[in-house]
Amino acid sequence: MLQEFRDFIAKGNVMDMAVGIIIGAAFTAIVGSLVADLINPIIGLVLGGADFTNQYVVLSGEAAEGASLADARDGGAAVFAYGSFIMAIINFLIIAFVVFMLVRYVNKVKDKAKEEEEVVEEATAGPTELDILTEIRDSLKK
């Protein structure tokens, strides 16, 4: 059973998946910083200083006027945090676009490598069976 487990872990798909998860976790931190530190301030400037992350509506309970979302939640108020939801959508769209661009680039590199491999195979490949038979036929005609 231990050998089967080793064989399973050693398969390329499992290792590729593990690397993808680790890189994805690191990439999430980068995208989170991109959105929080670069995109949110730009959106805030365009919308007159609005910071989406602290936009909410109090559903029940009390929250101090102008309190941050964290303060309202800590105070026990039930809040409808639509700003956080909007930022989650923006995060998703950015991550999806960047992943799309990465996959697109990787596919282009793979296609180019495949084309180069086919060219090398064609260049190094000897005559086909049909070519040899045609040659034999032509030499027998002489």
Give the SSE map.
Layout: H1 2-10, H2 12-46, E1 57-60, H3 69-74, E2 78-80, H4 82-124, H5 129-141
Antiparallel strand pairs: 1-2
Helix pairs in contact: 2-4
Question: What keywords describe this structure?
Answer:
single chain, 5% strand, mainly alpha, two-stranded antiparallel ribbon, 142 residues, 75% helix, Non-ribosomal Peptide Synthetase Peptidyl Carrier Protein, Chain A
Q: Any overview of this molecule?
A:
Helix 2 (12-46) packs across helix 4. This protein has a two-stranded antiparallel ribbon. The termini are far apart. It is mainly alpha-helical and 142 residues long. It is built from five helices and two strands.
Please count the helical segments.
5
CATH topology: Non-ribosomal Peptide Synthetase Peptidyl Carrier Protein, Chain A
The number of distinct β-strands equals 2
Tell me the distance between the termini.
68 Å
Overall SS class: mainly alpha
Strand order of the largest sheet: 1-2
Shape: elongated
Q: Percent helix among the residues?
A: over 70%
What is the CATH-assigned architecture? Orthogonal Bundle
Low-confidence stretches: none
Q: Element order, helices and strands?
A: HHEHEHH
How many structural domains does the protein architecture include? Answer: 1
The percent range for strand residues is: under 5%
Average per-residue pLDDT, rounded, comes to 79
What's the CATH class label? Mainly Alpha
